[in-house]
Amino acid sequence: NLTPATSLSIVDTRASKFVGEINIPGCSLAFPAGPRTFFSLCFNGGALVTNLNDDGGLSAQTRVEKFFEPDGDFIADHGARTGNTWLFPSLAGNVYPLELEGTTVKPGKVWSLLTETERSENWRISGFQGSAVHAATGRLFVLMHQGAPDTYKDAGTEAWVYDIATQKRLRRIPLTHPAVAIGVSRDQDAILAALDMLSSHLDIYAATDGRHLRSISEVGITPALVQFPWQPPAGALP
């Protein structure tokens, strides 16, 4: 909710019942971080962790200290989750991990998506949902394009693939249509789905090698989200 104060409405989906409203001052969004825990990103570069009771009421809230620079290298509001870690790409082409630990989160070590040459060539993150993870292979997919700093929401012309463990880029996938959102299926023979909002094309690629497999047209009116069911790997928090 934005009233203009920020808050979250809690709903019991089984009973179709509104449970209550929880304030998240100075923060927005909700990222799952456990059975009754989620975190929100905050204007000061930190995070707010909210824990719920079993009935959906507020149990506790804790602040995470500043871990990104909101006035410089701010992070995108679309992270990708792998196991117990959320990965957030940033304006300057870095990855900021947030690791789930019990009922809180802690910042991980920041790493770069770009070489210095690529930074000088103005390669940047892209889109409204510009990152996705294939957990079984430990691969991170990120939409990229070339442009000025304020174009970080523009459509991506390529999807870059990284090995999360080594933090090395494995592949660059040229896209048939510029995309504002990507998603990766969870199966072994994974597909990468890339969504072009302007032409309403959904392009399907082989996630393993980037081959363009097919395009699906007219998937909606200005679609901007790709969502595959999330199945947590063994040992991951729900």
Strand elements, count: 20
Q: State which percent range the strand residues make up.
A: over 45%
Name the structural class: mainly beta
Mean pLDDT: 93
Task: Tell me the series of helices and strands, N- to C-terminal.
Answer: EEEEEEEEEEEHEEEEEEEEE
Principal-axis shape equals globular
Helix content: under 10%
Low-confidence stretches: none
Taking all Cα atoms into account, the compactness measure Rg is 18 Å
Terminal CA distance reads 24 Å
Count of helical stretches? 1
- Mind summarizing the main beta sheet? 5 strands, antiparallel
Task: List the topology elements.
Blueprint: E1 7-12, E2 17-23, E3 27-32, E4 37-42, E5 47-52, E6 58-64, E7 80-82, E8 85-89, E9 94-101, E10 104-107, E11 111-112, H1 116-120, E12 123-125, E13 131-134, E14 139-146, E15 156-163, E16 168-179, E17 181-184, E18 191-196, E19 201-206, E20 212-216
Antiparallel strand pairs: 1-2, 3-4, 4-5, 5-6, 7-8, 8-9, 9-10, 9-11, 12-14, 13-14, 14-15, 15-16, 17-18, 18-19, 19-20
Tell me what the structure shows.
The chain has 238 residues and is mostly beta strands. Helix content is 2%, strand content 49%. It has one helix at 116-120, and strands at residues 7-12, 17-23, 27-32, 37-42, 47-52, 58-64, 80-82, 85-89, 94-101, 104-107, 111-112, 123-125, 131-134, 139-146, 156-163, 168-179, 181-184, 191-196, 201-206, 212-216. Strands 7, 8, 9, 10 and 11 form a five-stranded antiparallel β-sheet that branches. Strands 12, 13, 14, 15 and 16 form a five-stranded antiparallel β-sheet that branches. The longest helix has 5 residues, at 116-120. The two termini are 24 Å apart.
